[in-house]
Write a structure and sequence with these properties.
By secondary structure, this protein is an alpha/beta fold. 41% of the residues lie in helices and 23% in strands.
């Protein structure tokens, strides 16, 4: 791996965060399919194009993009997590997908000068940079002149029921930590569309377009699966897992979460509202 600047994110995604992602990988990737498809459609891919997939995770979007650009195209997936990328590499070997490759590196400072791409893509992989302006300036170097970018990121937590519901339930039993700086690296740091525009403009991108896209996030096929997922992933799980929270309080939280989720049960599982931004931009 190249030298790192995103040290906190490196520690998280190569530690507990990466392990939890792998633990729930099938649930997460399946639930993110509509959002990935929408962002891929916004990229307007053509056969033969070279695509850089930032924060590619276990490779779900990389393999889909590889199918769309065809055997004459190429996809390079990059991620900071060795733990998560291991799954992508194993899948590549299993599927014998020759036009996709993976690399573990910090995209904020990775040397892309010898690798030029037609498209830069990301599904929830660009919100974790210590210095997003510097990161996007570096990423723009990876694009050919006239190249383009498309990514999907979350709108604020309050717009995303799949996160806010569990937080609301947790607040009944524990004191939630004070909200961190909304611009700190993290899953919801690009919730302010105006901030995203400022970052991309400063990095030199043009024709920036940001559109709302709402869908649902399936947190479980049944209530028990949904409770397990939401009590293990996200800010509510961190609040309940705090050392000062006793087992009785955690049990009460689990019971209440079960009751709230039951309201949202459908024949296709428990689906909660999710709100994103679909972002596109050009490299002049």
């Amino acid at each position: 791996m190249s030298n790192l600047v995103n040290t906190d994110m490196n520690e998280y995604w190569n530690g507990d965060g990466g392990r939890e992602w792998i633990r729930f990988q099938e649930r997460i990737d399946n639930s993110l399919i509509p959002f990935g498809k929408k962002a891929i459609a916004a990229a307007k891919l053509s056969p033969g194009e070279r695509v850089l997939d930032i924060g590619c995770g276990c490779g779900d979007t990389s393999f889909e993009i590889a199918r769309q650009v065809g055997e004459n195209g190429y996809v390079h997936g990059i991620d900071i997590s060795e733990l998560v990328l291991e799954k992508a590499i194993i899948r590549k070997e299993t599927e014998s997908q020759d036009n996709v490759n993976f690399e573990c590196s910090d995209a904020q400072i990775h040397n892309f000068r010898e690798a030029k791409f037609d498209v830069m893509f990301s599904r929830y992989g660009v919100m974790f940079f210590d210095d997003p302006e510097a990161a996007f300036k570096n990423l723009r170097q990876a694009l050919n002149s006239g190249g383009r970018m498309a990514f999907v990121c979350w709108q604020p937590v309050r717009m995303n029921q799949w996160v806010s519901l569990a937080l609301d339930v947790a607040s009944r039993f524990v004191q939630l930590p004070k909200p961190s700086d909304p611009e700190s690296p993290g899953g919801f740091s690009f919730g302010d569309a105006n901030r995203v525009t400022r970052i991309l403009s400063s990095a030199g991108f043009t024709n920036i377009s940001i559109h709302k896209f709402h869908d649902t996030f399936n947190v479980g096929e049944n209530i028990n699966e949904a409770v397990k997922f939401l009590s293990s992933i996200g800010p509510a799980s961190s609040a309940i897992a705090a050392p000062e929270v006793d087992d009785v309080t955690r049990s009460r939280f689990i019971s209440a979460l079960h009751d709230f989720l039951a309201i949202h049960m459908t024949v296709d599982g428990i689906k909660l509202d999710a709100a994103t931004w679909i972002v596109t931009a050009d490299n002049p």
